[in-house]
Amino acid sequence: MVDQAQDTRVTTADPVRDQRRFPPKGAPLIHGINRGGLWTLYIKEVRRFLKVQTQTIWAPAVTTLLFLVIFTVALGRQGRMVLGVPFASFIAPGLIAMGMMQNAFANSSFSLLVGKIQGTIIDYLMPPLSEGELMTGIVAAATTRAIAVGLAVAVAIGLWPGVDLGVAHAWAIIWFGLMGAIMLSLLGLLTSLWAEKFDHAAAVTNFVVAPLSLLSGTFYTLHNLSPAFQMVSLANPFFYVISGFRYGFLGSSDIGDGHAAVWWAAGGLGLFNLALGFATYWLLRRGWKLKS
């Protein structure tokens, strides 16, 4: 019986055939993009925020609508006009973009952080996903949440009397909306890499994201500020997202004179996101605060 088993093993063993069937040890089995793994990660992240959609999608819509109600009642009385439109129509696009950016940050800043705190970060590091695929899946899911929140906010604001959300330049709505969502998704991913507890992520939210959002020109025009504060606003990337997104609805903005300034802002945001994405990818590739 032993001789027969040995004979069978010898006659069926074919090193050349096995080399064709199985790659050498350490050689990658997946070449190119791991589409299945990337899609699985994306669906996992999307399902995570959809399970609590009352908190992640509809609650931001209600909060943003309250902003509109408060500022319209406080500042929009007596037919106040800004950029040639009623005050409510002026702040509505900015509120939509602000809600999209804040929720994109909230989604991506939670992904890796909760894994580090709960000790399940291995679930992100062990699957056969490259650093670029891991970053793409998390950012894409956060952008999806931002789009969902933007649509919910737009519907809620559209029901408010006196708000006109007519589309003047569809490309600007799409481009600046996506650029703002991607920018905050990358910033949130960087935060989840750096943070070691929820207090760290909350500090970035309270002392970086919230101030930049409120000082982005959502509730005022740049021309109402002093020259010093105008320079501060021009250095704020959130300002270009808000103003460019507003340009898509109203056909006018306070970025600069003419439509060329909006195009320059669109290109600048694209380059800024490329630089931010490269920095995030580099830190992920190094395993900064992820791998011991």
Automatic annotation (TrEMBL):
GO cellular component: ATP-binding cassette (ABC) transporter complex
ABC transmembrane type-2 domain span: 51-287
Keyword Metal-binding: no
Sequence segments annotated as region (Disordered): 1-25
The entry's keywords: Cell membrane, Membrane, Transmembrane, Transmembrane helix, Transport
GO molecular function: ABC-type transporter activity
Principal localisation: membrane
Family membership noted in the UniProt record: Belongs to the ABC-2 integral membrane protein family.
Name under which the protein is recorded: Transport permease protein
Species in which this protein is naturally found: Caenibius tardaugens NBRC 16725
